[in-house]
Structure formats: C-alpha cells, structure tokens
Amino acid sequence: MDEIEIVAGIALPDGRTTRSPLIKAVSTMTVGDSFFLDGARSADDGRVNRVRNWGRKQTPQWRFTARQFDAGVRVWRIA
Questions:
Q1: N or C end of the chain, less CB within 10 A?
Q2: Domain count, the chain
Q3: Does 54 reside within a domain?
Q4: What pTM, to 2 d.p., does this model score?
Q5: Is residue 25 situated within a structural domain?
C-alpha cells in the first residue's frame, strides 16, 4: 500500500466557489420578478426544479411558481 503524506497548515478554501449562472441570476430577484426559460417543455423542467430547491434552502424560504407558454416556461418569485 502507498504511504499517505499528512500535511499541516494548508488553509481550507471558503465554501463553494462556483455557482451556476442560473442561481446567480435568481439570487438577485425580488418578489414579483420573473424570467423566461426559452425552450423549456414544462413547468417541471430540471432548471425550474433547481430554482425551487435553492429557494427552499433560503432563510426565510423563497417561493417560485412557473407557467408554461408555447416557446418555454416563465418563472416568478412569489415570496
């Protein structure tokens, strides 16, 4: 078995350093704002679910609703 080298004094980086562009954009929304996902096929699109899940983790929780249109899905922040 190979030896494992233990190293002391290396700082742990601050949390997660990358965020998806979608979550970066959503994090600036206020109640009543919306965005359009061109080409999304339903309000259950994975991107919509990602936004909803992110909102549930906020304190207080952020709530979103989505409606399907011919060309995609529009998502609103409702709380």
A1: N
A2: 1
A3: yes
A4: 0.74
A5: no
**pLDDT digits over 20-71, tens only?**
889 999 999 999 999 999 988 888 889 999 999 999 999 999 999 999 998 9
Question: Are residues 43 and 19 in contact, defined by beta-carbon separation less than 8 angstroms?
Answer: no
Per the domain annotation, does 56 fall within a domain?
Answer: yes
Pair of tokens at residue 24:
């970066």
b/e for 49-79, b at 16 or more Cβ within 10 A? eebbebbeeeeeebebebeeeeeebbbebee
What residues have CB less than 8 Å from 49, skipping those under 6 apart?
none
> Is residue 4 included in any domain, yes or no?
no
Tell me which DSSP letter residue 1 carries: -
Domain that holds residue 64: 36-77
CB 36 within 8 A of CB 26: no
